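User: Just a sanity check before I run the rest of the batch. Below are the structure tokens for the first item. I only need the designed sequence back.
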């Protein structure tokens, strides 16, 4: 690095956070899938060799050497292994574990990280190592593995893409809410997205459907117009994107608690 030093500042975290490793295990016993595990803590697995199936509620995932996968508190899972399947795991818990899982976007639906074979020697060395505490070995290995997952996390990349798409949808609605033809297809065509994807990413990001948000923006605009002295329910409705004044009145009363005519009378 041309003789230059490197300094990386670490963001401050809450001092009451904790992370506790419970055990560090090499598992060699064959499993048939009949034994269902329901844990009260997290478990991070590294597949050492062989093949298996990870059985989760409603789906299954193939496993092979170099894969890393998680088990989550209170989420049932089981393994259906082939001969020669070997894996290691670290069980852990704590408030810091919860935060890390949230930050990485790791959950029961997003628990598998393939192609982490480079971790094999490190995991083996940590498990078999002597001369320093198993607690430090397991905790250090756990945090190191999580740091690598953060860097190559496909789910985090997907989350970023979906967040960007949701913000684009919101921006488009904010700019085109007065168009009476505004709908999912119009938004999707403008942004190059499938209408169903538009609906999904928007609701996941903002917690409301696009139709509900469009009505919110339109009624907010209607209130502003009437506060500026613009009168006539039909006129205000059309300016806000409603072709049907009666429908506009119903939506307005539902959101504001009074009819638009009564609301507008306050400012005339």
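Assistant: Here's the designed sequence for the first item:
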């Amino acid at each position: 690095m041309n003789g230059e030093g490197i300094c990386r500042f670490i963001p401050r975290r809450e001092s009451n956070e904790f992370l506790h490793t419970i055990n560090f295990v090499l598992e060699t016993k064959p499993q048939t899938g009949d034994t269902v595990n329901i844990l009260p803590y997290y478990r991070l697995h590294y597949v050492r060799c062989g093949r298996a199936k990870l059985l989760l509620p409603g789906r299954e995932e193939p496993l092979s050497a170099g894969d890393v996968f998680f088990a989550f508190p209170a989420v049932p899972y089981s393994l259906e292994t082939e001969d020669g399947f070997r894996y290691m795991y670290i069980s852990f818990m704590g408030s810091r574990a919860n935060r890390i899982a949230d930050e990485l976007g790791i959950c029961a639906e997003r628990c598998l990280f393939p192609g982490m074979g480079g971790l094999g020697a490190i995991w083996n060395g940590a498990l078999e190592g002597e001369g320093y505490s198993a607690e430090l070995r397991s905790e250090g290995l756990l945090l190191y593995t999580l740091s690598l997952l953060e860097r190559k996390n496909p789910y985090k990349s997907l989350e970023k893409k979906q967040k960007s798409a949701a913000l684009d949808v919101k921006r488009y609605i904010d700019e085109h809410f007065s168009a009476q033809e505004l709908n999912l297809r119009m938004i999707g065509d403008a942004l190059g997205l499938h209408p169903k994807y538009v609906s999904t990413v928007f609701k996941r990001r903002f917690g409301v459907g696009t139709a509900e948000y469009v009505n919110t923006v339109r009624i907010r605009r209607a209130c502003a117009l009437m506060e500026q002295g613009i009168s006539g329910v039909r006129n205000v409705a059309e300016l806000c994107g409603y072709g049907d004044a009666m429908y506009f009145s119903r939506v307005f009363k539902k959101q504001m608690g009074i009819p638009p005519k009564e609301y507008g009378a306050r400012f005339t």
